[in-house]
UniProtKB/TrEMBL annotation:
Location (main, coarse): membrane
A cellular-component GO term for this protein: plasma membrane
Entry membrane topology: Multi-pass membrane protein
Protein name as catalogued: Multidrug transporter subunit MdtD
SUPFAM superfamilies in alphabetical order: MFS general substrate transporter
Spans through the membrane: 47-69, 76-96, 102-123, 135-157, 163-184, 196-215, 227-245, 295-314, 326-348, 354-373, 394-417, 433-453
Gene assigned in the entry: mdtD
Matching PANTHER family: BLR6921 PROTEIN, MAJOR FACILITATOR SUPERFAMILY MULTIDRUG TRANSPORTER MFSC
Amino acid sequence: MPPSERSLSILLWLVAIGFFMQTLDATIVNTALPAMAHSLGESPLRMQSVVVAYSLSMAMLIPASGWIADRFGARRVYLGAIMAFVLGSVLCALSPRLDFLVAARVLQGLGGALLLPVGRLAVLRSFPREKFLQAMSFVAIPGLIGPLIGPTLGGWLVEAASWHWIFLINVPVGLVGCLATLRYMPGVQGAAVARFDLAGYLMLAFGMVALSLALDGLSGLGLRQASVLVLMIFGLASLVAYWLHAARKPDPLFSPHLFSVATLRIGLLGNLFARLGSACMPFLIPLLLQVSMGYSPLHAGLMMLPVAIAGMSVKRVATPLITRLGYRRVLVGNTMAVGLAMASFALASPEQPLWLRIAQLAAFGAVNSLQFTAMNTVTLKDLDHGMASSGNSLLSMVQMVAMGMGVAAAGAVLAAFTEVFGSAGGAAQTLPAFQATFACMGLITIASAGIFWQLASDERPAGAAGDSADLEG
């Protein structure tokens, strides 16, 4: 019997709430990091592992999410994802030490990694094809709201209660989600499940983790230089081994043939290196405002609203602009604009007028949002039906890896400049370290403009291929 309209509506809400939880927890911790550091006896400048652990664990599980859903059924996997997310949230709130908190964030990220892909699969199988785009547009809205309210909500909870509540608020939502999943999520499995490429998956996952830990080890984990070098070599060797493995395997996780599509090849590399710079901003800005300028957690969270509002506002002009100027002009010029907007925070100081700081944050939010839209759509627009699913998963994985590595890199640069400038003088002494870090991360972003210069000069949108590509930011 086909599902009723009410059941379909509740299914949409269920998937939307799962996406909201996933994106909310990616940003809600940023304004709470100084309070968490104080509670755990850590330096607020060395808390990037809390952010890296979440995004990296999500990146690890994304390649296997489709196979897991097909093998065990959407309802069972979605229920397990919510339970893992809620359990991870509870363990985060109970964490007595930083290493315990990082481990709990890994569990939370593993649950979060399955929420959107499995939920999207359930929607695809439950809705007629002519209603699928409308359904996914509805699901995407909470995903945009999560990052919008995350920093402010995190700051308010720290001041109104304690940092523990940024995780505990997931518990009642998750319990309701579990009951709704059992009642309304279809449990139909895929028609056929191919053999999972476990060897390739382990090589790919180890390579991502090793490279990210090497970057994070430069500051947050306290690893010595020799250990960092060994991790980097092992990580790179593992990634090379995966691509050699994929080249000879008939059904790898990600086929090397994907890279025969020029726009996907350039788009993925551009996504990786451009996000290495820009992904650190939601981590660095609240830290700067609280540690060096004396902002309260709530005030620091409110200062992130101009970034999100400007980002949402620019979405409507993105497609006409790209259609008129082409992808290469937009991406080369806008990548440089993003880098310059980031580097402009090197001029930040407590004496800066409030209106100028808000304008600076809004300008960064606008160009960064345009960057995401253009990068995502150019990456996926030329994939045929057979490559679309694999290409989209690969893009999602690259996005999450770049976010984790970007925060880890920014933490390492900030730690290095903190040692150079010294922090014995208190908060005021940390300002030069932040200023130098913003300048360096901005230059990294500007350097990635050369990747987008390799696009054809007449590359323009083809139909509506990019409409759903930006759902995950």
